[in-house]
Amino acid sequence: MKRWRKNVDVHQVTDAKPSLTSDIHRREIRYLVQMGIRTVCLILAVVVPVPWPFRLLFIAGAVFLPYIAVIGANERGEPAPPPTFQDPEANQSEIPLHRREIGS
């Protein structure tokens, strides 16, 4: 049997990025876990009688974890690479990478 196309790109479901809903859910869970760790650090710094080096470590965790948690919660997966136009065999009917997400 004769092949009509030489190079056929096959896109698989496993190549797809996670949905926006699952990405938001993952970031929410991560944020809540980090805020839980911050709460534990705050309680340990105030309530538990530990030496000052440990107390300072707990205070630093309570102060800096919110910043780290917010930065991580606002992060949206991997950025799409910029489109390249050097490939002469590029499929012109394909949706560009920066336009594939619905609602962008």
Automatic annotation (TrEMBL):
InterPro entries: DUF3099
Region (Disordered): 78-104
Transmembrane domains' residue ranges: 31-50
Keyword entries, A-Z: Membrane, Transmembrane, Transmembrane helix
Descriptive protein name: DUF3099 domain-containing protein
